[in-house]
Amino acid sequence: MEFLSQTWPWYISGFLIGLIMLVLTYFGKKFGMSSNLRSLCSIAGAGKIIPFFNFDWRAQRWNLAVIIGAMIGGFVAVNFMNDPSNVALNPQTIVQLEELGIDRPDGKILPDILFGSEALKYPKMIFILLIGGVLIGFGSRYAGGCTSGHAISGLSNLQIPSLKAVIGFFVGGLLMAHYILPLIF
Amino acid sequence: MKAIRYLLIGFIFGIVLTKSEAVSWYRIYEMFHFQSFHMYGIIMTAILTGFIGIRIIKRANMKDIKGEPIVIADKENASFRYWIGGLIFGLGWALAGACPGPIFILLGAGFWSVTFVLGGALVGTFIYGVLKDKLPH
Predict the structure, then answer these.
(1) pTM to 2 decimals?
(2) pLDDT digits (tens, 9 = 90+) for B79-113
(3) Which of A66, B6, B43, B126 is the most buried (most CB within 10 A)?
(4) Are the Cβ atoms of B93 and A159 closer than 8 angstroms?
(5) Is A8 within a domain?
């Protein structure tokens, strides 16, 4: 069973993600994670003041079950299936990260400088996390989907709108990774 | 209980995304620096698997679990919202290192600081809802 705690190869992981999308399609549902953010806003009562959130979120309960399951899956994978060999980055990436002052993974999933308990003492780091979240939430709703809805579901159904969105994702990501992150760290 | 079915799908999704390290801030950074094929391999294999599956579903006119024909709606035809919305999403993806699925997975895994990313994402979604009719799509 040791292979389960290693980094799963891309071809197995990608295949399983594609399969999950297909199983949801067979269940008559649409694979899309960012829709849950809209449901959560609606549950919190945003529909009373903003029409966009005034919809029947109960019809989306299945998707909320998916994210609850995903949270349990994350808990199990991180607590019972990890290994110090995980997150073996390209050595070049580690050098680059160190130049920015970002700690190397050494088996960790997230860098401490941004996500560790120490980081939360710095308003700057909290601000980065919040702004990252705002861009993700706003952008995915504006584009009508995220990685699951556009990159996986949309592109596998040869949707030109999804191709535009995915190109947008990558242009934004490249700008951030190459030009903005070095200014922040 | 139908909920069990979706909890189980989510559970597998959470494990796959964690063990493939698609939830890792580091992997997203590495991907945007073209220093590993790993993330591209995951995304391309998922698309290829989905493409073949959807082809089969369409060719065979497959029915869903309730016996109704499977209809996969086309995405709304537009441009601006996809380019600009996509670009904004991409900025956030590379900054926080997580897209919406991983935000939930990481929270479940006990990375409490991700609460700020989720909070921000809810605020961002809310802002879109407020501005929706004023934004060009």
Answers:
(1) 0.96
(2) 999 999 999 999 999 999 999 999 999 999 999 99
(3) A66
(4) no
(5) yes
**Would you call B92 and A134 a contact, using CB atoms and an 8 Å cutoff?**
yes
* Backbone phi and psi for residue B89, each to the nearest 5 degrees, phi listed first: -60, -45
CA distance B120 to B137: 23
Q: What pLDDT is attached to residue B2?
A: 85
Angstrom distance (rounded) from CA A94 to CA A92: 5
Q: At A108, is the secondary structure helix, strand, or coil? A: coil
* Amino acid in position B123: V
Torsion on CA atoms A105, A109, A110, A111, rounded to nearest 10? -10
Is any Cβ of chain A less than 8 angstroms from the Cβ of B55?
A: no
In a domain, A52, yes or no: yes
Structural domain boundaries enclosing A47:
1-82
Mean pLDDT by 10 residues, chain A (185 residues): 90 98 96 96 96 95 97 97 94 96 95 94 96 98 95 96 98 98 93
Q: What is the ipTM of this complex?
A: 0.96
Burial string for B46-82 (b: 16+ CB within 10 Å, else e) reads: bbbbbeebbeebeeeeeeeeeeeebeeeebeeeeebb
> Who among B49, B109, B124 is closest to A136 (CB)?
B124
Residues in chain B: 137
Residue numbers in B near A78 (CB within 8 A): 18, 109-110
Kindly state whether residue A49 falls inside one of the protein's structural domains. yes
Nearest to A72 among B5, B11, B121 (CB): B11
Tell me if A42 is assigned to some domain: yes
Tell me the three state secondary structure of residue B79: coil
Nearest to A74 among B18, B86, B121 (CB): B18
Distance of residue B117 Cα from the nearest chain A Cα, in angstroms: 4
The fraction of chain B above a pLDDT of 70, given in percent, is 99
Would you state the pLDDT for residue B1?
Answer: 61
